[in-house]
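In line with agreed milestones, the collection of sequences with tokenised folds has grown. A representative record is reproduced below.
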Amino acid sequence: MKPFLKWAGGKYRLLPHIRRRLPAGRRLIEPFVGSGAVFLNTDYPEYILADINADVISLYQVLQEYGNEFIAYCKSMFIPENNTPERYYVLRAEFNDTDDRLHRAALFVYLNRHGYNGLCRYNRNGRFNVPFGRYQKPYFPEQEMQYFAQKATRATFVCDDFRNVMARAVPGDVMYCDPPYVPLSRTANFRSYAANGFTWEEQEDLARLAKELSQKGIPVLISNHATEFTLAAYAAAQQERIEVRRVISCDGANRATATEVLALFCDLAGYTQLDR
């Protein structure tokens, strides 16, 4: 099942590779859940799903709590009258100003499907600032939301720093980490990368914690760009490199391949991998 949110860097297309690498376990922990593609397409008894984006986690919690009632509320916003630039910017302002948890969550779904390229972006003041997307008829993901709500009965949603989330792991857990990817060049894009809130030091922390958890019998799978930095940082892991097609221009017409790495920190003795 595809996620109901459009999401930059979503892992739906990489699922066969990820699932082949993920060991079985009692509970899957995702410190960077994003759109939830891995959650939706694995079958662990329990999940801890975390993200630092409070709007994403609040949305998932509201959907988990209210189910079909909330889905119907979201659907009421997907009408032709709301698919204009003028109405989009009115609703975007409502999203930024409202304190109503349910209304803000529904508006997040609306903005995700009506905004440009499904981006999730905030200015320095924390206000959502993605422009109107100009889609002829934005798709309302009703079935995808229903599936998510049904499966969310197994999940605990957490808004927290990845280090705190990783500290929750105990033997029997499995962890999948999909952090903000490192730039393909360590010098290129450094300022914009650091400004997005995930630094080189945090990448190093992630690799260190993954190694420490694996030594405690907790397997950790990380996805990232395959660069000199990540291949060195993940030296203690079993690595698989994958060529992935990527959009490299704003109009989506130009695509190129980038090499990604799946790094599994795990002594596989005593573990079985998912075969689904």
